[in-house]
Specification:
The chain has about 325 residues and is of the alpha/beta class. It is built from 14 helices and 11 strands. The chain has one domain: Ribonucleoside hydrolase-like (Inosine-uridine Nucleoside N-ribohydrolase, Chain A, Alpha-Beta Complex), CATH 3.90.245. It has a 9-stranded mixed beta sheet with strand order 3-2-1-4-5-6-11-9-10, with helices on both faces. The chain has a two-stranded antiparallel sheet with strand order 7-8. Bound molecules: beta-D-ribofuranose (BDR) and calcium ion.
């Protein structure tokens, strides 16, 4: 029995990869869209295009929050292009979105489905808004596996990763919700790149979906090479799916994560307390300051990039 999940996203090239991986390995109850890489109207259109080219038209899509809780909206066209999914010509969407806001969709699905998992791979606004409107929702969510933050460096700023920086207040709501969280941050996702050799492997699969994926990854990799000097586009978002389906892809340590909401240089940073990664260190910590706050997340500290890539290639072979 696969894990029941909602993918909450802002497609986005790597969000598209998360949808493709998730649709074959999780029991996806729906896709919810949020502002982020581009405005909500475009992230929603892009989610509809992804399900169209991958033949996933049965998966419901609900549009959500069109702006952050407090800060002004920011987008990332420099990474994903003006459409949010630049590169190949994509087919027109075949299905409409459902007539329900993402916040209501999440709440209703959580009431109907036991052990529901959330996989947020964009700004956390939908999840935070749902938790604020329906506080009892926290008890109905088995786990959140999110792409966001970093144990080390940022990408939007030296300290902050895009998904958290795009709505730090929402991230604060989520990290203080008490829901078990897996945080898959830049420190690991940057290690899994769609290099030219790997894109050639995708092309060799030979189906139409893989052709489109290869072209999306070409565009995205070119942009990340220009912006950050990377050898291949980072597979950020699908790693949040992989975390739920294959325990050998990522290694985690429990830590306390706080979201920096006021820092002049560190606004939007995920401050991870990495001091006590061995239980014995906590004992040795003695006083309260050194012991720190109890862990509120499992933070990814290592990744097996070849294993992830094998999994991704395998899944792509199952598409039309
Ligand atoms: C995150 O930001 C977005 O551009 C990507 O889709 C990913 O979710 C990486 O920082
Ligand atoms: Ca994303």
């Amino acid at each position: 029995m696969s894990i029941a999940a909602i993918i909450d996203c802002d497609p986005g090239h790597d969000d598209a990869m998360a949808i493709l991986l998730g649709a074959r390995t999780l029991d996806v109850k729906g896709i919810t869209t949020v502002h982020g890489n581009v405005p909500l109207s475009l992230t929603t259109l892009n989610a509809r295009k992804v399900v169209a080219f991958a033949g996933l038209n049965g998966v419901p899509i609900a549009a959500g929050m069109d702006r952050p809780l407090v800060r002004e909206a920011i987008h990332a066209p420099e990474v994903h292009g003006q459409s949010g999914l630049d590169g190949p010509e994509l087919p027109e969407p075949a299905v409409a979105i459902v007539d329900e806001h993402a916040v209501e969709f999440i709440k209703r699905t959580a009431a109907e489905v036991d052990d529901l998992h959330l996989v947020p791979v964009g700004p956390l606004t939908n999840v935070a808004a749902a938790l604020r409107r329906y506080p009892q929702l926290a008890e109905r969510i088995a786990q959140i596996s999110l792409m966001g933050g970093s144990l080390t460096f940022g990408n939007s700023t030296p300290a902050a990763e895009f998904n958290i920086w795009a709505d730090p207040d929402a991230a604060h709501v989520v990290f203080t919700s008490g829901i078990p969280i897996k945080m898959i941050g830049l420190n690991v996702t940057r290690q899994v790149g769609a290099t030219p050799e790997r894109r050639a492997q995708v092309r060799r699969i030979g189906n139409e979906t893989a052709r489109i994926v290869a072209e999306l990854l070409d565009f995205y990799s070119e942009r990340l090479k220009k912006l950050f000097g990377l050898k291949g586009g980072s597979m950020h978002d699908p790693l949040a799916v992989a975390a739920l389906i294959d325990s050998d892809v990522l290694r985690f340590e429990p830590m306390h994560v706080s979201i920096e909401l006021r820092g002049e240089h560190t606004y939007g940073m995920t401050l991870c307390d990495y001091r006590h990664h061995e239980p014995s260190d906590i004992e040795a910590g003695g006083n309260g300051i050194l012991r720190g706050e109890p862990a509120n997340a499992e933070v990814a500290i290592g990744v097996n990039d070849d294993r992830f890539w094998e999994l991704f290639l395998d899944v792509l072979t199952t598409y039309p």
